Amino acid sequence: MRTLIPLLALCVLLAACDRTDPAQQARIAALETQAAELRDESTRQSAELQRLRDESASRPAPDRAAAPADHTDELRQAIARLEKRVAELEAAPKPAPPARPEPDSRTDQTEPAQPSPPNPERELEAVWPLVQSGADASAIDELSGLAMRGDKSFRDTVIQRLRDWVKQEPENARARLALAVLLTTRFIDLRNEPMKQGALAAEVKQEIERALEIDPGYYDAVHFLAILKVNYPSFTPEFKGAKTDLDKALEMQAQLPWEERFCDVYAAYGMWYRVQKKYDDALARVNDGLQKSSQNAGLLAEKANIEKARGE
């Protein structure tokens, strides 16, 4: 479950994220660059204006015996021109993006093919056999990400398919795990509805505990349950009892070939201690994980959270 920590802890935030088109972001960046250049030009012109003013003010009185040429009028005209230019620069709006060039009718050019829009239903049909078979350990994560990217109707479709699978195979631990993971994506649809969120969390916990009743040695279920409990409020029995599940996950990891996703448990353990303000214990757990994977993003992020919380 490589994505469980961000999925469980940040699902509501993801729902509010701005999904700006990359091409639009590039155009905005170009406009900001041009605006910065205009501001720099305005600054340079203002400095030149001030220099000319200072030169005019400090110019010595003409010597009647041998008066030099009087450039006062020229200076005044230059100052007036600069003042006008500065005012124009300061008042100038951000320039419009450059117009796309007209196609050259003399050449036979065709627009590059645009990528086809995402088709969640098609992707669902592609990943579904892998979810059911367990041939790909990341298939459930992939299905979860697909549901997160889709709309509520699509999430309903995926979850209903999983419910049907559980109904057909009630003793299938993998089906129960998949349903528990996908149910967490529904938090997106329950913003500002704490009662429904609580009921959903209870259903998620029920499904994963049922998976462990079916198969107590199912590591993925232990992994998921440990992280789920860490993300409960700190006053709940689930959060307080998370240490047992975290320790069990680490014990099971020791009997398995190392996988990068195991780092999630170390990061969750660090978070569990951090929430209780036990910063030394939190940092020790995260460092244990970093000894196994020194560049793991989740561990590095949690280490930064711990250091920030303790005021470093």
SSE map:
Blueprint: H1 4-15, H2 22-58, H3 72-91, H4 120-133, H5 139-149, H6 152-168, H7 173-183, H8 194-214, H9 219-230, H10 237-240, H11 242-253, H12 263-275, H13 279-292, H14 297-309
Structure description:
The chain is an all-alpha fold. It has helices spanning 4-15, 22-58, 72-91, 120-133, 139-149, 152-168, 173-183, 194-214, 219-230, 237-240, 242-253, 263-275, 279-292, 297-309. Mean pLDDT is 80; it is low at 2-7 and 9-24.
Structural class: mainly alpha
Give the fraction of residues assigned to helices.
55-70%
What is the count of β-strands? 0
Q: Identify low-pLDDT runs.
A: 2-7, 9-24
Radius of gyration: 32 Å
Strand content: under 5%
| Total DSSP helices | 14
Main sheet summary:
none
Order of helices and strands: HHHHHHHHHHHHHH
Q: Give the end-to-end Cα distance, rounded to a whole number of Å.
A: 31 Å
Mean pLDDT over the residues: 80
Broad shape: elongated
Notable features of this structure?
312 residues, mainly alpha, 14 helices
Question: In a nutshell, what does this entry contain?
Answer:
68% of the residues lie in helices and 0% in strands.
